[in-house]
Structure formats: structure tokens, C-alpha cells
Design a protein that fits this description.
Layout: H1 14-35, H2 39-65, H3 71-110, H4 152-175, H5 179-211, H6 218-250, H7 260-285
Helix pairs in contact: 1-2, 3-6, 3-7, 4-5, 4-7, 5-6, 6-7
Length: 286
């Protein structure tokens, strides 16, 4: 190829070890769901996955610092990150789709409306509404109350929007070679991320102890925790990635024109922010 040779990484043990770790975690999860045991396997598998990821990324960072990567590898990383984020978009699209299906089709059918309104024969006294405070099956208790979107959810929305702004400033500082700007604004982004996680924890405590919103609180409780819970996990992952970027900035890594690791972290964080705006609108507001 013109401009240099294509770098072929050495044989790596991390793919097979990662597969084994994921397999152990999934077997443990299956045992936990079916037989109510398997927690040690889940924990061992999860620690294995985290360990493989950390060591694998360490190798990638080391190879990059040694100058082994060229323009073709840079394109490969960009395509890889792009497809990864696309898979995450599809992941959340499935849960948003489930919420849309329940609210637009399933609940009206149970209330006698639409093409499958005959389903109303199952629970003739049921009246469709959202949030669903009174599930059709009387054996299931719905939530006692729902969150006002204009309190903690709005605060968290403003925090995440602000974190995207601070991260953008940090990115621009890196491109301009102003490392102190990058360091300071990236640190501010991390503080905002940690604040979001803490507020989400407070909200979950309130949900379980004062609002009756649990995973057993009908379809509203299930969709609430699936959507906000998976997003919370992504925030924690994103904050961890940003912490690694902060450490690398402190170590003098990256340059104005060679910093895809930082750029990929920014892509991921902005994606997490956009997903939250969707959650705020369709889980809390509408």
C-alpha cells in the first residue's frame, strides 16, 4: 500500500479468553434465571470479561504508542467504533420499540380498541392509560406514583447536556494542542458523569422505597428499569472510558492530529447523552 506497510498484529490470546469469559458469564446467568443459582459463575465471568478488556486495550495502546499503526489501521478503528455504536443504537431501539408497542397497540387492544380489541374479553374492566398504574391482572400491583419529569430527571438531563459541552471543549483543546484545556474540561466532564450516576442512584432509591416503582410493578416498572437501568450501565462504562482518557492525557498521550482513542470515547459519550434525551422524553415526559 502507498504511504507505508499494513500492520498485522501479532497472534493474540485475548479473543479466545474473552469468549470463554463471556461463555462462563452467560452460563451462570442462565443457571441463575432457571435454577436460582450461578451467581459465582456470573461474577467470575464478568471479572474475566473486564480483565480481558483491560489487558487487550492495554496492548492496543502500547502498539499505538510504538507507532505501529498507519492510516489504514486508523480507518479500521473508526469503522469498528462506528459499527459498535450502531449496534448500541439497535440495542436501545429494541427497548424503545417495546415501549412503543405496549403503549400504542397492546394497551388499546386490552381496552377493546383496534384490530385485536377482542383481547378486552380477558379483563373486561380494564381501562387503558399510561403510565399504567393499575395493571389488568389484579394479582400484580402497579406503581403508587410516578416521577415528575421536572425534578431529578430534568436535573440529570441538564447534567448530561452540559457534559457533552464540556467534552466538546476538551476535544477542541486537544486538537489545538492546549493540553491543560483538555485536562481541565475532561475532569469537569467526569465530575458531571459521577453526579449523574449519584442522582440516578437516589432516584432508584426513591422509586423502590417511596413510589412503588419496581421490576414487579407491571409493564411500567419493567420498561422503566430496563431503559433507565441499561442506560445507567452505559453511563458507568462511558465514565470509565473517560477516566482512562484522563489518565492518558496526564501521561502525555495523544497529539492534535493523532487521538482517535479520545475521539472514540467522545463518540460514545455523545451517543449516551442522545439516548438519555430520548429516555427523558418518552419515559418521563410523554
Amino acid at each position: 500500500m502507498s504511504g507505508g506497510s499494513y500492520y498485522v498484529p501479532e497472534s493474540s490470546k485475548w479473543p479466545i479468553l474473552g469468549s470463554v469469559a463471556v461463555g462462563v458469564m452467560m452460563i451462570g446467568t442462565g443457571m441463575l434465571l432457571v435454577h436460582d443459582r450461578g451467581t459465582p459463575m456470573v461474577i467470575i465471568g464478568m471479572l474475566g470479561v473486564l480483565g480481558v478488556m483491560a489487558l487487550w486495550f492495554y496492548d492496543v495502546i502500547k502498539e499505538s504508542r510504538q507507532g505501529l499503526y498507519d492510516a489504514q489501521m486508523d480507518r479500521s478503528f473508526r469503522w469498528g467504533m462506528g459499527w459498535f455504536i450502531f449496534s448500541e443504537v439497535m440495542f436501545f431501539a429494541a427497548f424503545f420499540g417495546a415501549l412503543f408497542y405496549v403503549r400504542t397497540f397492546a394497551l388499546p387492544w386490552l381496552d377493546g380498541e383496534g384490530a385485536k380489541g377482542v383481547a378486552a374479553l380477558l379483563w373486561p374492566d380494564f381501562t387503558a392509560s399510561w403510565p399504567l398504574m393499575s395493571p389488568p391482572d389484579s394479582s400484580i400491583s402497579g406503581p403508587a406514583a410516578t416521577f415528575s419529569p421536572w425534578q431529578l430527571p430534568l436535573v440529570n438531563t441538564l447534567i448530561l447536556v452540559a457534559s457533552s459541552i464540556t467534552l466538546t471543549v476538551a476535544h477542541e483543546g486537544l486538537k489545538e494542542g492546549e493540553r491543560h484545556v483538555t485536562r481541565n474540561w475532561l475532569f469537569a466532564t467526569l465530575l458531571l458523569a459521577i453526579t449523574f450516576i449519584i442522582i440516578q442512584g437516589v432516584e432508584y432509591y426513591e422509586a423502590y422505597n417511596h413510589y412503588g416503582i419496581t421490576l414487579q410493578a407491571g409493564i411500567y416498572g419493567a420498561t422503566f428499569f430496563l431503559l433507565t437501568g441499561f442506560h445507567g450501565v452505559h453511563v458507568i462504562i462511558g465514565a470509565t472510558i473517560l477516566a482512562v482518557m484522563f489518565w492518558r492525557i496526564q501521561k502525555g498521550h495523544f497529539s492534535g492530529d493523532q487521538h482517535f482513542g479520545f475521539e472514540a470515547a467522545s463518540w460514545y459519550w455523545h451517543f449516551v447523552d442522545v439516548v438519555w434525551i430520548g429516555l427523558f422524553l418518552f419515559v418521563y415526559v410523554f
